[in-house]
Design goal:
Elements (H helix, E strand, L loop, with lengths): L2 H15 L1 H8 L4 H8 L4 E6 L6 H10 L3 E2 L8 E7 L5 H12 L3 E3 L6 H4 L8 E4 L6 H10 L4 E5 L3 H14 L4 E4 L14 E7 L14 H4 L2 H20 L1 E11 L8 H10 L3 E4 L9 E2 L32 H7 L4 H10 L4 E3 L1 H4 L4 E8 L15 H5 L20 E2 L2 H11 L7 E5 L2 E5 L1 H8 L3 E2 L5 E2 L9 E4 L1 E7 L2 E4 L4 H4 L7 E3 L2 H8 L6 H8 L7 E9 L2 E9 L3 E3 L3 H10 L5 H6 L1
Parallel strand pairs: 5-6, 5-8, 6-7, 8-9, 22-23
Antiparallel strand pairs: 1-3, 1-4, 2-3, 7-19, 9-13, 10-13, 11-12, 12-13, 14-15, 15-16, 16-20, 17-18, 20-21, 23-24, 24-25
Helix pairs in contact: 5-21, 10-11, 12-13
Amino acid sequence: MRGRDIAEQERADAARRSPLTALVGHLGRDPVAWLQTALAPLPETFRISLHRTDRSWTVEQVKAFGAKALPWMAEETAFAMPFERGKATGDAGRMMALLHETGRITRQEAASMLPVRLLDDDANRLILDLCAAPGSKTTQVAEKLHPDGVVIANEPVSGRLNMLVSNRSRLGLANVVVTQHDGRHFARLPPPGVDAVLADVPCTGTATTRKNRDVWWQWTPKEGRKMFTMQVEIASRGAALLVPGGELIYSTCSVDPIENEAVVAELLRRHPFLEVETVEIPGLTLHQGLNQWPLLNEDGTRCDEDVVEELPFFADHHRSPVDRLRQGLGEKENEERIAEALLGCGRLWHEDHNTGGFFVAKLRHRADASPEGTAAAYRSRRAVRNSTDWTPPLKRLPPVTVNTVVEADHEVLNTVETLYGMDLSPFSVWQRGKRLNVAPPLVKQRLFDPPSPTNKGDVWPGGSFHPMRVAHVGLPAFTLKKDSWRSRQEAVYVLRDKFTANITDITEDVFVRLLCGWAPLLDEFESETGLNNLPSGAFLFTSEVSCGVEVLSVWLGARVTLMVDLNEQNILRRKLGLPWRDEEETA
C-alpha cells in the first residue's frame, strides 16, 4: 500500500473512533453515511464578481471547464467545478488561478456563502462583519452592497488584517472599511448603530472535516465548551450595536450544538429585543435547529446527569433549553420561548449538497422593542439620570499621526481632479500618507461626520473615525510618486468612466502591440500613432477590441511603459486569442 493510501486509511480509522463521529450520531445522523461524505475531498467552488464589467465573459470561461451554477445562490453568481478543491490542472488550473488573482472570481467553500445569502437585500446599508479575515464573506457582503452600501470589516490580528486589505484590492472594491478591534469590545460608532451584523465567529471547525484533516485527532467535547463564552461575547457585542429592525447573522463551521444553538439561546436570554427568524433558502436543504442535545464525556459518550458538573469548562448555559426546563434553570416561560425559537436556526450537513457542514441563525432586533430608534449600546445611564437640558461634554480627540485616515485635503483633490479631468464628488475621498482612497459617501455620513457618545455619557466629536481603530478606508485610487498623483491599477475599473483627461483611444493594433511587449520611445509612439503632445505621467489607453472596450494603464516618460501586472495581461491575452505571455516568450 502506498504512503498516501496508508495515511487515508489511518484518517478513516481515526474518524470512525473519534468523539466527533460519536457526537454526530447523538445528534440523529447516521454516522456511517455521514462519514462517506465527511471524509471525501471538497469540490472546487467559487463566486463570480458581480461588479465587473466582463462578468458574462468570466461565466463563459468557467462553463467551458464544466462549471455548474449553485441552485441556491442567485442566478449564476456561484459555481461548482467538476474537480476537487485545489486540484485543477492544465488550462483549467491556470484560468482558475488567473480569474481569482485578477478579482473576477473568489474561491470560497459553498457552505460559507450561506450567512451573506441570508442578509436582507437592501443595498444602501452599513453592515458590520465582526470576524472578517481572510475576507471571503466580507467581499461577498461588499458586492451585495455595491456601490452605495458599506461593510465594516473587523479583524483584531494584524497579519490576518493584511489578508482583508489584499482581498479588497484584488476585487477592486471601494465600499470596505477595515478596522482592528477585538470583536468582543468593538468600539462605539455613531448612532443609530449598524443596519446588520455578520458574526461568523471563531469555532472548533468540526464541520470542516473535508479540508481540515487534523480535526479527527484534535477535537473533543471540551473544545466546544471552551469556545462558548468568546462566541457569545462577540455576537452579543454585535447585537448591542444593531439598529432596531436590523438583522444579526450568527454562524459557525461547527456541528457542535454548544457552539451553535447554545450560543443563540444565550443571546436570546441576554437581549430580549432579539427574535429568531426561520432560516429558509429556496433550493437548499437546511435542517431545523436543535432545542435538545446531550452533554458528552471526552470520549464522546453521554455524560450521566449526576456527574455533568464534573465536565471540564462546564456551565449551565451549555445545557439545552429542554434540559434547563427539566432542571428548573431559568424562567420557565423564557426557556420555553427559547426552545421554540431554536427550531428556526439552520443546519447544513456535508451530505446534503456535497459541501462542508455549517450552522446559521438569523436574529432580528425587534423595532417595537426599542422605540427610541437606536441600538442598545447607546442607552447611557448617565444621560438618563441627568435633566433633559443637560449637554454631554465633548472629549478631546487623539492627535493625528501619519497612520491616521483623514479626509483628503482640498488642494490635493483639486490637483487630482484637474490632472485627470474628473469629478470625485460622488465619492468620499480619504488620505493616509501618500495614498488617496475613494469610498461611498455613506462612510462620511454614517462613520466620520457624526459625533459618537461614550458609555459614560460624554461624546467624541464628529470629523473623526475615533474611537473606532480604522486601518483602511475604501479603495486606493491614487499614489503620490515623484510629485505626481499616479492612478492605481486596482481602481481603474471603478474610475475609468470618470476620466476625461490623461486618457485617449488607440487602435486595436496598437493595443495588441503594447500588450505584447512593445515599449517604444515616446517620440516613436507619437509618430506611429498620430497622438501628439501626450503629457508625461500616468495615462490610460482605451480601445474597441474584438472582446469589447478594454483599458491599458501606462506610464508616459522617455518610453511608453505598460503598467499592468502579468496576471491582468494574460487575461487580456486570453480575451484576444493570444498565447499566454510565458508561452510567447518561449516560442
